[in-house]
Amino acid sequence: MRIDILSLFPEMFKGVFGSSILKNAQDGGHVTYQVTDFRDFADNKHKKVDDYPYGGGAGMVLRAQPIFDAVEHVRQNDPESKPRIILLCPQGERFTQKKAEELSKEKHLILLCGHYEGYDERVREFLVTDEISIGDFVLTGGELGAMIIADSVTRLLPGVLGNEESAITDSYSTGLLEHPHYTRPAEYRGMKVPDVLLSGHHANIEEWRSRESLKRTWKRRPDLIKAKTLNEKEKQWIKEFVDESNCY
């Protein structure tokens, strides 16, 4: 996969792409990251990429020209490709694990990081394919959102994680929050690991994990439960959770 990022502050990405799993993914040939300063494509001697909005109002608006030209530049080696061109903005679709999984199947992503009051509307109307928001809050720019998308998509690429099941069983990938984890020692300061995890009985362990995953989701993110189709065993577990909670 190739991920291009258009930003006015490319230096922000050095630490992110030069560390941990993202660095290993690029070193292993699974993904290529390229950060482009779209200020370099401004068509004026002062490299100005924003201007006052038509009709008046507060703030400055990013001009269409530098962004269009920067996108054309990063596509010049493969002009026939159809990359997903993603605008990072508060008005976009809420980013989810499902969206990350969808984007991980693409060959080329272009992430546009905005600043100031917003973008010239022609960028939205005639250039981008997706608009994404990482949450219902406003940041100074799209860089942090682009880092989040790049990270969440990269870890889903085949061969990136040491254990291919890790991404599959992560919170949200199954529609539920992940079950609790424990490691050595089996007892620490009187706090014990659940006996079932020490039993070696794989079927019982899997059932415990499924139940605990459902229980944690029921407690912390009931909205996810409402969006999930439950089987009969899960419905029975939910009833047990309710009964247990009424006992306290």
Task: Report on this structure.
This is tRNA (guanine-N(1)-)-methyltransferase. It catalyses: guanosine(37) in tRNA + S-adenosyl-L-methionine = N(1)-methylguanosine(37) in tRNA + S-adenosyl-L-homocysteine + H(+). One of its GO terms (molecular function) is tRNA (guanine(37)-N1)-methyltransferase activity. InterPro entries: Alpha/beta_knot_MTases, tRNA_m1G_MeTrfase_C_sf, tRNA_m1G_MeTrfase_TrmD, tRNA_m1G_MTases_N, tRNA_MeTrfase_TRMD/TRM10. It comes from Halalkalibacter krulwichiae. Strand 5, helix 4 and strand 6 form a beta-alpha-beta unit. The chain has two domains: 153 residues, Alpha/beta knot (3-Layer(aba) Sandwich); 73 residues, Trp Operon Repressor, Chain A (Orthogonal Bundle), CATH 1.10.1270.20. With 248 residues, it is α/β, with parallel strands linked by helices. The longest helix is centred in the last third of the chain and has 19 residues. The protein is elongated. The protein has a five-stranded parallel sheet with strand order 2-1-6-5-8, sandwiched between helices.
Q: What is the secondary structure topology, with strand pairs?
A:
Elements: E1 2-7, H1 14-17, H2 20-27, E2 32-37, E3 50-51, E4 61-62, H3 64-74, E5 84-94, H4 97-103, E6 108-113, E7 118-119, H5 121-126, E8 130-133, H6 143-154, H7 165-169, E9 187-188, E10 191-192, H8 195-198, H9 202-220, H10 222-226, H11 232-246
Parallel strand pairs: 1-2, 1-6, 4-7, 5-6, 5-8
Antiparallel strand pairs: 3-4, 9-10
